[in-house]
Amino acid sequence: MSGRSKFLTFFSKCALFFLIVFSRFPAIAKEGMWIPATLASHEKEMRAMGLEIPVDKLYNEDGTGLNNAVVLFGKGCTGEIISSKGLVLTNHHCGYGSVQRLATADKKDYFANGFFAKKMEDEIPCPGLTVTFIRRMENVTDRILTGVNDVLSDEVRDSIIAKRTAVVEKEFMNNTHLEASIKPYFQGNQYWISVTETFRDIRLAGFPPNGIGAFGGDVENWMWPRHTGDFSLFRVYAGPDNKPADYAAANQPYETDEFFNINISGYKEGDFTMVYGFPGITQEYISSYELKEVDSLTDPISIAARTRKLNVWNGHMAWYKENFLKYTAKRAGVANGWKKWQGEVSGLEANDVIGKKRDYEKTFQSWADKNVNLPLARNLLAQMRNAATAADALISEDQYNKEAPLGIELVQQGAAMEKVISCFRANFSQRQLTDTLQKISADMAGFYKNYDVPTDKDVFITLMVLYFNKCAAWMPDYYKAQYKAHNQDIGAWAEDVYNSSIFSAQDKLNDFIFKAKAGDSSKVINDPAWQLYNTIAIMRNEKILPALKNYYARMRYLDRLYMKAQMEEYKDKTFYPDANLTLRLSYGQVKGVDTKGAAKGPYQTNLGEVVALDDPNSDIFKVPQKLKYLYQTKMYGMWSEKGAMPVAFIASNHTSGGSSGSPVLNGRGELIGTNFDRAYEGTMSDYYFDPARCRNISVDIRYTLFIIDKFGGAGWLLDEMKITKKPLQAAAPKER
Ligand code: ARG
Ligand code: GLU
Description:
Layout: H1 3-24, H2 43-49, H3 55-58, E1 70-73, E2 77-81, E3 87-90, H4 92-101, H5 107-113, E4 115-116, E5 124-125, E6 131-139, H6 141-145, H7 154-173, E7 179-185, E8 190-199, E9 201-207, H8 210-213, H9 217-220, E10 232-238, E11 252-253, E12 262-263, E13 272-277, H10 288-319, H11 321-350, H12 353-370, H13 380-403, H14 409-412, H15 414-425, H16 430-443, H17 445-449, H18 453-470, H19 477-485, H20 490-500, H21 506-515, H22 522-525, H23 528-569, E14 584-589, E15 604-606, H24 607-612, H25 625-632, E16 646-651, E17 663-665, E18 671-678, E19 696-700, H26 701-711, H27 715-718, E20 723-724
Parallel strand pairs: 12-20
Antiparallel strand pairs: 1-2, 1-6, 2-3, 3-10, 4-9, 5-9, 6-8, 7-8, 9-10, 10-11, 13-14, 13-17, 15-16, 16-19, 17-18, 18-19
Helix pairs in contact: 10-11, 10-12, 10-13, 10-18, 13-23, 15-16, 16-21, 18-20
This protein binds arginine and glutamic acid (GLU).
């Protein structure tokens, strides 16, 4: 080789080095949750970041795309198929409710000890649970919006759209068992259809104990570093034709060729990642006026009310074991939003997102002022400001209504009480009356099973104090009169309510039902729980909800035009639609975070850190004995990395509520983890994605497999999976 060509080789190696280093790192984090059918326009960038497969392997309509391996798990989580026999991996917190509802005697032990089927026949049916596949997505905007112009009234517009939607959905279902559903995207400027297949016989295969699957509980929730093995395993069962069927013992595991291969070779900082799933709601394009309502009204009010409620629940749960069991799932739900909103408010403030939106709006306004093609754009911001200002008081009031009086569990039973009353109003025979009332009571069994009166009574007291401090102006007269009648002693009032209401215990309700005579509804109508519920409902229906409904309709109209105008203003930008619980793909990179200092934060946690947190006296930081043993003996099998057992990692993928359980994929589309959370500092990404702060948190797939294998002793499940250790290529990706 001549000196010159040696130099050239050296030179081109350097060039390649720079190309790799500098082309990979500028795109550190990628905002956006993309419609899978539109990925072709991202292929170049994704390839440069490390994608090694064609994007039509990620999504296509001929049945061979990986979209067929991502499922909507239940009604609001994501799951991934990881074997040809319909094995579904999702989060522990996504399976939690189903496990709590299991009708087996030992379900309590599942939270304490976990459950791992030892063979397929052991898998436990979960009535009511569904798994939905997305077979196809198509842009049907033309079919829905042709000829529908911006000046039509919303009533006319909505009715045209509803009619067309029904026709197109029917056509796509094409007399099959598939379902089709059209949803608006870009605030109603586009419409897409999803063709789906929903399976109804889903069984539990593996569920780690809370000491793994919910480790760190609400303390570590929404936080990084994180130490939770937040996964669970289910299996989809199908009828003899491999199609959805109601539960039947004879159903067979759903067979499929489309499932995720698992890669256990690990990842390093900067590696390309994708999250494929069902993010629920984001609002990235709203005006500063709407964002202000979140930042200074709804979030702070909900936080204040829930802080009070959680203080009460935490106390009663710590004092009485039964209350822990009754309230654990409820607390997780209430605390989850409570903490996320705190992160959201602090993130929005730290980033001055309102200020940034105002600057953006100034630019928009001067663009709109000059734009003759979109005359409607000119007044949008002023109209939004006026509408929002007029609605602020209503929004604040109703947030208190929902979180304070309607946050009391007894009052929350209003819908059931309403059913009881309507039984008396119906012209029932005595027999019919008793039967119907008994059925209503039976339906409430689930509520009473997880209900504790002393706990709820304390919640009543603390939430009423808040309500009386904040809502005097709109308060129903009934509340004022009761307060007065009890000498302004909310504790005495609470005592009275819970003693005299027939709804505070199922025995009392049944006792009433046993004696109830047709036509005599007075006892229910005078029941304090009903009065507390009904007077608020009447006040809301008369004074608040119609006005709010108008406000939201108005905003929906303005948001649609604003979105359209923004897309017009930035014609060259590729916009992504706000999340709407349809299938999306986000891409980013494994990336540490440290929002407090310059030091690079770690991007991965390990089992040593879990064991270091062990606290035998804590419900949430108590490491199961067996896990400690596995740690001490380093019995990691093939799942460890450099002698350590990875647990969780973070990356810069744009996710939201609903992304829980989503597959986290490497550049080859292989599974490296399961998404389950976001870092506190970045929860404002539902409104504003800051690449420096926003991180999604995932369980490392190796931890999941280690727990199934070594902790759960369910190695037979691993035999169905396709597991590879082949590392990704570092070099330029192969051509297709
Ligand atoms: N923050 C996660 C999500 O939004 C996990 C919630 C469950 N975990 C918990 N500790 N509450 O769903
Ligand atoms: N844990 C959330 C869920 O259940 C996902 C975390 C997030 O909101 O990013 O959907």
